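Lab notebook: predicted structure, single chain.

Context: the supervisor wants predicted structures on file for every construct in the current expression panel, including those that have not yet been purified. This is the next one on the list. No modifications to the sequence; it matches the entry in the shared construct table.
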Amino acid sequence: MRIGCRIRLLSLAAGFAVAVSLAADDADLPVFGEIMRGLERDLSTATQALVREDWESVRAAAEAIADHPEPPMSERRRIMARATSRDIPVAEVRATDQEVHKAAGELADAARRGDMDDALRHHAEVIRGCVACHDMMRPEEGLPPLR
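Prediction complete. Output recorded below exactly as produced.
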C-alpha cells in the first residue's frame, strides 16, 4: 500500500475515534443505543479490516452499516423531536442518515473491487455522516440526553 494511503487511513482512524466517543451520547435509548453500539462495532471492524486490506471483512462490515435496523417508531419520534427543538429540519436528519447508508454501500462495493482509494474515500464519508448526525443530536447543556 502506498504511503499516502496509509497516512489517509490513519487520519480516518483518528476521525473514527471521535465518532466512537460521540456514540456514547446516544447509548441512552434502549434499542437505539443497541443499534448505535452495533454500528460502532461494524465501523471499527471496517477500519481495522482496511488497515489489513481484508476486503471480505470490510465488505461485510460496510453492508451491516448500510443495512442496519431502524429503531422503533417511538424512538424515532423522540429523535425527530430533539431535532425539531433545535430548529434542525427533520429532512436534514433523514438526509444525513441516507448519506451514511449510501456511503456504506459504496464502501462495500469498493471492498468487492479491492479498491483502496475508493474504500478510503467512502469510509471517510461514513464517518463524516456519523459525526454530522452526532453533532445534530448531541445533548446541549441543560438538555437531558435522549431517553
